[in-house]
Hints:
Elements: E1 2-4, E2 15-18, E3 25-28, E4 32-40, H1 43-51, H2 53-56, E5 68-70, E6 77-86, E7 91-98, H3 101-118, E8 127-135, H4 137-148, E9 154-163, E10 171-175, H5 179-192, E11 203-207, H6 213-226, E12 234-237, E13 239-244, E14 256-262
Antiparallel strand pairs: 1-5, 2-3, 4-6, 7-8, 7-13, 9-10, 9-12, 10-11, 13-14
Helix pairs in contact: 3-6, 4-5
Amino acid sequence: MLxxxxxxxxxxxxxxxxxxxxxxxxxxxxMCQLAQLATLKSQTHFYSIFKNxxxxxxxxxxxxxxxxxxxxxxxxxxxxxxxxxxxxxxDVYSVWALPPExxxxxxxxxxxxxxxEFGGPQFEPHVTVVGAISLTADDALAKFRSAxxxxxxxxxxxxxxxxxxxxxxxxxxxxxxxxxVVEASAHCTGHFGYKSSTPYMPHLSLLYADLTEEEKKxxxxxxxxxxxxxxxxxxQISRLALYKTETEDKTLKSWEKVAECNLCPx
Length: 266
């Protein structure tokens, strides 16, 4: 199929678009949010669309558009209306503080013991430093590297096993909000431009699940039985990781580590 056009202010490679109400095919910029597709039988009708101010405001810098199609579509003319904003792919990212290997192994064993009885998806032990934020891949990585630069290792200490009010804060190790713990999060959230509606609550989750208050109480008790001294655990945080964390995916199968950095010695 051949397409000729004139007076068009589109730029960039063309992207094939199927019409909504016919078998015709149009070409438009890639990643445009198509607001309207119209099949027109004459150029009189064609131009009348663009003389309507309501439609002009929706066009993508088209002052005059004169599509004609040769070949088997030779009798069809059409217009593509689009919003001016290109759709940029973004994903949800989080920044995690990672415990040292010995603590990781210990906490994972506890997590496995809880999951065997109460269910829930598997995930790596971590302390969330920056909560879920939607970014492009390049922007997320650049912000992560910037946040890691100059940040020093710090100590985290468990206060107690606690319960929360939603899936991602079902049962967790609540950490003491010491100055260095809070400042590490503030440093990173500043680089990411992350704004939270609630004060930072440092914690290391043990179980993700939708449970009743009674069930959460049982998990809390079970955690203290499986590891009696977990409530007084103290460990050094010397690594941060950037994770892709689509919060709509409660299976966590789409979650993946993107990058990791070592913090400066304290």
